[in-house]
Amino acid sequence: MALFPSALDTLLGLQQALDSFRASGWLDAGPSGAGAYPPINVFRNGNDFALVAEVPGIAKSDLEIEVKGRTIRIAGSKTMRYPERASLHRQERLAGRFDRALTLPFDIDADGVKAESHEGILVVLLPRAAHERPKAIKVN
Fold first, then answer.
1. Where are the beta strands (DSSP E) in 1-62?
2. What is the number of structural domains in the chain?
3. Domain holding 102: CATH number?
4. Residue 118: which domain range?
5. How far is CA 131 from CA 25, 45, 121, in A?
6. Residues with Cβ < 8 Å from 77, sequence gap 6 or more?
7. What is the pTM of this model?
8. Tens digit of pLDDT for each residue in 28-56?
9. Please, which of 54, 73, 84, 98 could form a disulfide with 66 given CB 3.0 to 4.6 Å?
């Protein structure tokens, strides 16, 4: 019985760990470089829901919002502008196209959806479709 693993076993384990990490999809992040972009919170607002997303540096005209059934899609592009002769030394703020779709547990009233963007925060109000709203039943 060997007390120390062989160098080949150690390298093989490292290669398997790297392959697993690469296959996880973590490296396929959007412009933020840190997971799903833009970061989104969805919360209940009475009988309806609201979606809040961080979209700093993204113009309202570069945002696309679509609703169909239970799904809301937010897409757009984040651009970075640099002076003409700038030499980029370090780049942590990435640019590019993003596209996220979320499926909610109810149908959305597409005609009642409202969206606002202010100071890098996107708020989308998502009313439930009429047939999804709770109905009070009177007992006779």
1. 40-45, 48-54
2. 1
3. 2.60.40.790
4. 46-80+96-132
5. 38, 18, 30
6. 58, 62, 95, 96, 97, 98
7. 0.68
8. 555 544 557 889 999 998 888 999 999 99
9. 73
